Amino acid sequence: MTTASRFEGKTVIVTGAASGIGRAALIRLVSEGAIALAVDLNEAGLAETQAAATSAACHGGRISVTVASISDEADVKRAVADFVEREGKLDVLVNMAGILRSTHTQETTLEQFMLLIQVNLVGTFLFCREALPHLLETKGNIVNASSTSVEYGHPYMAAYSASKGAVAAMTHSLAWEYMRRGVRVNAVAPGGIVTPLVIATPAGFPEGVDRSLFLHMTPPDQKFGMPDNVAGVIAMLASSDGAHINGEIIRIDGGVHS
Ligand SMILES: NC(=O)c1ccc[n+]([C@@H]2O[C@H](COP(=O)([O-])OP(=O)(O)OC[C@H]3O[C@@H](n4cnc5c(N)ncnc54)[C@H](O)[C@@H]3O)[C@@H](O)[C@H]2O)c1
Questions:
Q1: What are the DSSP E strand ranges found in the chain?
Q2: What digits encode the pLDDT tens for the residues 44-96?
Q3: Which residues are catalytic?
Q4: Boundaries of every domain in the chain
Q5: What is the pLDDT of residue 38?
Q6: What pLDDT does 64 receive?
Q7: For the chain: N or C, fewer Cβ within 10 A?
């Protein structure tokens, strides 16, 4: 746990906050003083995050929650507008909500492909778009979720990798577009972080996968990362410690893809 107070008086929205990296990031930010909105589809998970964040809260930090789908335009508009109306401003957006599905590419239906794009890419875009007018006022910043699958081939994940590559590209575009107006946009690219998304992945593999293709994604010492390993980097990027970092995608995988 940290004693830092980098987010005292700062208002933040964290999507995907009912689980894994989003939950760890939200708890970390609230422990450093953030006034946070947790967004997720999973109401029970949000309640667990709320309890954990409330007991970790320091320096005036507090949490509210809202059930919303990041890929539903009306939900996203409502979540951002209600939070800003209540708290008066928005300083930080952390876009961690996402899904992973694996399929043989030659058998992937258009619906399966578009689901990954709709959640991981369109959902991230919608939150960025709705947050940007408010972030321009506070000279705030965004942290998106990319993935090591973008630069290093992860088999049976073509739609997932494409969606995360597009998030990385959008991060670079937004960083350049808003740089002169004081808004920073960065991303984390986690790999092998122990969360429900990763734990569920082997069970979700389709029949007949060639498991030897996964060797280059597996830590040689089986040392996987934890959500807190990513949360600390998100907090750094979103805080004044990241003030001179913009348009950066930070790989957090313990060196597996080095
Ligand atoms: N865990 C890893 O190793 C890893 C690697 C690369 C990228 N990532 C990315 O990091 C982010 C967080 O992943 P995680 O591992 O913590 O996964 P997770 O499954 O633990 O958390 C993802 C959260 O997103 C929520 N979510 C999914 N669809 C949503 C929607 N339409 N609207 C609102 N919420 C929705 C889920 O309910 C869940 O709470 C994801 O974007 C993921 O792609 C994770």
A1: 11-15, 35-40, 62-67, 92-95, 141-145, 184-190, 249-252
A2: 999 999 999 999 999 999 999 999 999 999 999 999 999 999 999 999 999 99
A3: 160
A4: 11-252
A5: 99
A6: 98
A7: C
What are the structure tokens assigned to 100, written together?
A: 């992973």
For ligand 1, is residue 97 a contact (CB within 6 Å)?
yes
**Between vectors from CA 192 to CA 191 and to CA 196, what angle results, nearest 5°?**
115
3-state secondary structure of 239: coil
Amino acid identity at 47: A
* Contact 21 CB / ligand 1 (< 6 Å): yes
pLDDT score of 1: 53
Cite the beta strand spans of 16-61 per DSSP E. Answer: 35-40
Q: For 156-184, write each residue's pLDDT tens digit.
A: 999 999 999 999 999 999 999 999 999 99
Instruction: Indicate the average pLDDT of the chain.
Output: 96
Closest CA to 10 of 248, 245, 238: 238
For residue 25, which amino acid is it? A
Q: Is the CB–ligand 1 distance for residue 30 below 6 Å?
A: no
Residue 193 CB less than 6 A away from ligand 1:
yes
The alpha carbon of 43 and the centre of ligand 1 are apart by a number of angstroms equal to: 15
Q: Return the CATH number of the domain spanning residue range 11-252.
A: 3.40.50.720
CA 116 to centroid of ligand 1, rounded, Å:
11
Residue identifier of the C-alpha nearest atom 30 of ligand 1 = 69
Ligand 1 site, residue 20, Cβ cutoff 6 A: yes
Q: Which residues pair with 142 in a beta bridge?
A: 93, 185
**In the predicted model, is pLDDT for residue 219 greater than 90?**
no
Distance, CA 188 to ligand 1 centroid (Å)? 12
b/e for 234-256, b at 16 or more Cβ within 10 A? bbbbbbeebeeebbbbbbbbbeb
Which atom from ligand 1 is nearest to the alpha carbon of 75?
Answer: 32
Gyration radius of the chain's alpha carbons: 17
